[in-house]
Design brief:
The complex is a heterodimer of chains A (258) and B (273). Chain A has 258 residues and is of the alpha/beta class. Chain A has one domain: 3-Layer(aba) Sandwich (Rossmann fold), CATH 3.40.50.10320. In chain A, 34% of the residues lie in helices and 21% in strands. In chain A, helix 1 crosses helix 5 and helix 3 crosses helix 4. The two termini of chain A are 21 Å apart. Helices cover 32% and strands 22% of the residues of chain B. A seven-stranded mixed beta sheet of chain B has the order 5-2-1-9-10-12-11, sandwiched between helices. Chain B has a three-stranded antiparallel beta sheet with strand order 6-8-7, with no helix packed on it. Chain B has a two-stranded antiparallel ribbon with strand order 3-4. Chain B is globular, with a radius of gyration of 18 Å. Chains A and B meet through helix 4 and strand 11 of A and strand 7, helix 4 and strand 12 of B.
Chain lengths: 258, 273
């Protein structure tokens, strides 16, 4: 039976940035990779780096951003023979066609490409239909591990995705699922040292370059310069070259990743 | 010069439930308490004790809920020798009416913050909700100004290990406002209180320091009991805030404790104990 690992990220690119080395390592070990992206990716800016070395930032509307970011997610997932599952919960803001930043507030309009009455990513974890949808994906794929955002960060959609994943995981466990749940650490030191502890690490020393290639496939997103340095820093602390680090939220019956 | 301690909670009762003992203890030490509510408290049920001893949870509109919960917050703050400051960021849902597409939240019909949601009664369109307030420069500025005005030795607020997105939103609002205050000279420290949600892993509920509230546990329960619409039976055996305080006390080697993660020690401030 083929073993499976499921990765759940808020946005296109998150899985690659925070757990890309783990994805590649376990793909090479023969695991089937499941990619789940919780938001509709309608937000953000499109960063382009022309040959002259400058950085240009465009602000496409919600439909254009969704198309662009989802196509990048598909291309990156294909590298590990996966096809992303998009849960399509609207993000908390977006750029209008005129380039104006619009925020989710009471009394606001509906963005282009968003259906009426869909829970946003901020409240999806309290919506039983949304939780059931993710629970069914968990149960139908029966992954050894589910890997998602932790709560050491300042990005509210990452935090909300952690809530959605953890609550759907709880629902799946109560229906007999026996895999584990890992929360990746994002290295946001501003939340205090104790919020940056970890339980397990995955040695990605042989995968640092390939991880960055995977990350770089998200060409619309300016890659944070610290991704490689952070993995190297964690590697140093873990006694290897490069590492990705995790908190164990649920052990299940699975063997620990390493 | 009078010393201050500031507590920032998402909802009326959060401060009392999580750090009521610490604030009572520091009030007795002569500290002034700055009591800040991040949301507008428009949501939630209203628990009423019936003649037969049972509890009926009523649903009321936004304006009624705000009035009641803010009244209770004012009573709690008064016992701490202060008055609440309300930042009034709208909550993510409220008890719906005929205009709203209701969904089920917390087992009740609720109207939820979604694209296309109508404006609830008593809410202005130009105010960011508590889930995005931390990204709003003006909202962070208001709280940073409050920090600078009172210059508290310590700011206490929700941690990020949560089940409640509004607690997370409040933690981020405080974190970013704190940073802004520090950039203009504020030297106090920031603590996240630990609420003990184990579902995100044992490592996520570790803490750095505790405040021994053994002598304040009964007073803490009295303080919580002013929030009648949310906490109808604070003296009931097994009441969770008492159990959690006692469990923390056991881990800390005292009778009852409130526990914290140090986000920032500040410069030259004396640790809480």
């Amino acid at each position: 039976m083929i073993k499976t690992i499921m990765f759940i990220g808020a946005h296109s690119g998150d899985i690659e940035v925070f757990a890309g080395g783990t994805v590649l390592k376990y793909f090479d070990e023969g695991y089937r990779i499941i990619y789940v992206i919780t938001t509709n990716n309608m937000s953000g800016v499109w960063t382009r780096c022309p040959l002259d070395g400058s950085i240009r930032v465009a602000k496409p509307g919600s439909l254009e951003m969704m198309r662009l970011r989802k196509s990048e997610a598909v291309a990156a997932a294909l590298k590990v023979a996966a096809c992303p599952v998009f849960l399509d919960h609207p993000q908390r803001n977006y750029n209008s066609r005129e380039g104006e930043l619009k925020e989710l507030r009471y009394g606001c309009g509906i963005p282009e490409g968003v259906a009426e009455n869909v829970p946003s990513i901020l409240t999806a974890h309290e919506n039983q239909e949304s939780r059931n949808e993710l629970k069914d994906i968990i149960l139908s794929n029966n992954p050894e591990w589910i890997v998602t955002h932790g709560v050491d960060n300042e990005q509210i959609e990452h935090l909300a995705t952690a809530l959605l994943a953890a609550k759907s995981y709880e629902d799946a466990v109560s229906d007999g699922y026996s895999g584990g749940l890992l929360l990746w650490q994002e290295g946001c030191w501003n939340t205090g040292a104790t919020n940056n502890l970890w339980d397990v690490f995955v040695d990605i020393s042989g995968y640092a370059d390939r991880k960055m290639e995977l990350v770089d496939m998200h060409v619309s997103r300016k890659v944070p310069h610290y991704v490689r340095e952070r993995n190297m820093d964690w590697g140093k602390k873990c006694g290897c070259g490069y590492a990705e680090i995790y908190i164990i939220a649920g052990h299940g019956n699975s063997q620990l990743l390493k | 010069m009078k010393k201050f301690i500031m507590a920032v909670g998402a909802h009326a009762d959060d401060i009392e439930l999580n750090v009521g003992g610490t604030l009572l203890k520091y009030r007795d030490k002569g500290y002034g308490v700055v009591y800040v509510m991040a949301t507008n408290n428009m949501s939630g049920g209203w628990s009423k004790i019936q003649l037969d001893g049972s509890v009926k949870v009523e649903s009321h509109g936004t304006v009624v809920m705000m009035r009641q919960r803010k009244l209770e917050a004012a009573k709690g703050a008064a016992l701490l020798g202060t008055v609440p400051v309300h930042l009034d960021h709208p909550q993510r849902h409220y008890n719906g009416d005929e205009r709203t597409n209701n969904t089920v939240c917390w087992g009740r019909d609720c109207a939820e913050l979604r694209y296309g949601s109508p404006l609830p009664e008593g809410v202005s369109a130009d105010v960011p909700t508590i889930v995005t307030a931390h990204e709003d420069g003006r909202a962070c500025g208001v709280l940073a100004d409050l920090i600078l005005k009172h210059d508290p030795e310590w700011i206490l607020t929700h941690g990020l290990v949560q089940r409640d997105i509004e607690h997370m939103g409040t933690a981020l609002l405080v974190l970013k406002s704190y940073r802004r205050a520090v950039s203009t000279g504020y030297k106090g420290g920031l603590l996240f209180w630990v609420e003990g949600h184990r579902y995100l892993g044992a490592t996520n509920i570790k803490w750095d320091i505790y405040v021994d509230i053994t002598e304040y546990i009964e007073k803490k329960i009295d303080l919580i009991s002013v929030h009648e619409c949310q906490v109808p039976f604070p003296r009931k055996p097994g009441f969770s805030p008492r159990v959690v305080s006692e469990m923390n006390g056991k881990a800390a080697g005292c009778g009852a404790a409130e526990v914290y993660v140090i986000v920032s020690k500040g410069k030259g401030v004396i640790p809480l104990s």
